[in-house]
Amino acid sequence: MPPLQPSPAPADYVAQATRFLVNYPKLATQGALISQLKATQPPQLYDWFACVKLQDGKIYAIFYANEKVSDLREVVAVDRCPDAYSPLPPAPKPPAKKPAERKKPGA
Questions:
Q1: CA-to-CA distance for 66 and 63, rounded, in angstroms?
Q2: Which residues, in sequence order, are CB contacts of 28 under 8 Å at separation 6+?
Q3: What is the pTM of this model?
Q4: CA distance linking residue 7 with residue 88, whole number of Å
Q5: Vertex 26 angle, CA 64 and 23, to 5°
Q6: What sections of the chain are H helices per DSSP?
Q7: Are the CB atoms for 72 and 87 separated by under 8 Å?
Q8: 74 near 82, Cβ under 8 Å?
């Protein structure tokens, strides 16, 4: 059986990582760095990954499949994160919520 071909690499992997990391508020992503995208190697799951280095020194692997973020975990030796990183852009701020309208008494 021939090896499976990975899905195409996501062109916007940095933007996807930035948006995905917002779901993890305990991770201090301000000033974080991200590596280039790399193809995964068995026993890694998914098709592509990038390493995200936080200011506190922790490094996470963010995985992609079908051109979308699929998973996040702390790196392990098999990941072999590269030495070169670029700044991870700050996450976009969520739109401001409109104040709730108050109902008039008796309305």
A1: 10
A2: 54, 55, 56
A3: 0.80
A4: 23
A5: 40
A6: 13-21
A7: no
A8: no
Spatial separation of the C-alpha atoms in residues 30 and 32, rounded to whole Å: 5
Distance between CA 64 and CA 15 in Å, rounded?
12
CA angle 20, 26, 32 (to 5 degrees): 60
Distance CA 13, CA 89 (A): 12
Per-residue pLDDT of the chain (107 residues; tens, 9 = 90+): 545 667 899 999 999 999 999 999 899 899 999 999 999 988 888 999 999 999 999 999 999 999 999 999 999 999 999 889 999 998 776 666 666 666 666 65
Domains of the chain from N-terminus onward: 13-84 (3.30.505)
What distance in Å separates the CA atoms of residue 17 and residue 52, rounded to the nearest whole number? 9
CA quadruple 39, 42, 44, 45: dihedral sign:
positive
